[in-house]
Amino acid sequence: MRLTEVLGIRRIINSSYHPYFAIPKPSIWPKRERLRRFIAWQYGSNRNTVRRGQRQLDKIFHYMDMHRRDELKMEKFYAETRLNAALGEHHYEYRELRSNFEKSHILLDTIVLSQLAIYEPRTFKSLVDFSKQLSLQQGHQTIFDKSDQENIELSTNCLGLPFPKSKYFPRGAGKDHRNPPRKLREEEF
Fold first, then answer.
1. What is the C-alpha to C-alpha distance for residues 129 and 151, in angstroms, rounded to an integer?
2. What are the residue ranges spanned by the domains of the chain?
3. How many other CB atoms are there within 10 angstroms of residue 104's CB atom?
4. Cα 42 versus chain centre, distance
C-alpha cells in the first residue's frame, strides 16, 4: 500500500503515536497476565512457564467443552437416579408411575419429577399416592398406608388411553454408512 497524502494526514490526525516513527508492537504482557489469571490454581511448571501454561489452558478449555456437551445427558442420568431413590422411599417403581401418569394424562418428565422429589416432597408424595391408588384400582398389588389411602378420591374419568407417542426418525446414513436413509412417507411428516 502506498502512503498517499490523505493516508498520511489521517495517520497524523487520528493517531496517538508520532506520525513519522514506527508504531510500536503491542506488548505480550496483557496476554500473559490473562493466561496467569486462568492457570493460577495449577501446580509446578504448568503455573510458572508460559508454554506449559498455555498447554494446560488448552486442556482446561477442552475439558470444559466436554463437560458442556455432556451436561444434558448427565442431567437426565442424575434426575433418573434421584427419582428412583425417591420412589424407593415410597416403595414404588418408576415403570408403574410412568404408565399411570401416561394413562391419566399427567405430562411430567423425569427431571421435573426429580426436582419435585427434592424440593417439594409432599407434592411428590401425593403424586405417588395418586399413582398407587390408580394401581390398586387396576388390580395391581402395591404397598400402601391406610391413612394415605383415605385422602385420595379418584373420579371415573381419571384413566384413559395414553397420548400417542411422538415418532423419532434416525438421523444420518444407514448402519453401514453406505446405504442412504429411506425417504419419508407422507403420513410420517
1. 9
2. 70-146
3. 16
4. 28
Torsion sign across C-alpha atoms 165, 169, 174, 179? positive
**What's the CA gap between 85 and 122, in Å, rounded?**
16
179 Cβ contact partners less than 8 Å away, ≥ 6 residues apart:
173
Q: Is 69 left (phi over 0), alpha (psi -120 to 50) or beta?
A: alpha
Tell me if the pTM is above 0.70.
Answer: no
Give the pLDDT of the chain (189 residues) as one tens digit per residue.
Answer: 455 565 555 555 666 777 677 777 888 889 999 999 999 999 999 999 999 999 999 999 999 999 999 998 899 999 999 999 999 999 999 999 999 999 988 889 999 999 999 999 999 999 999 999 888 888 888 888 777 777 788 877 777 888 888 777 666 655 666 777 788 888 887
CATH architecture of the region 70-146: Orthogonal Bundle (1.10)
The answer to whether the beta carbons of residues 53 and 47 sit under 8 Å apart is yes
Torsion angles phi and psi, residue 125, rounded to 5? -65, -40
- Least Cα distance to 131 among 164, 165, 154 occurs for 154
What's phi and psi for 90, nearest 5 deg? -100, 10
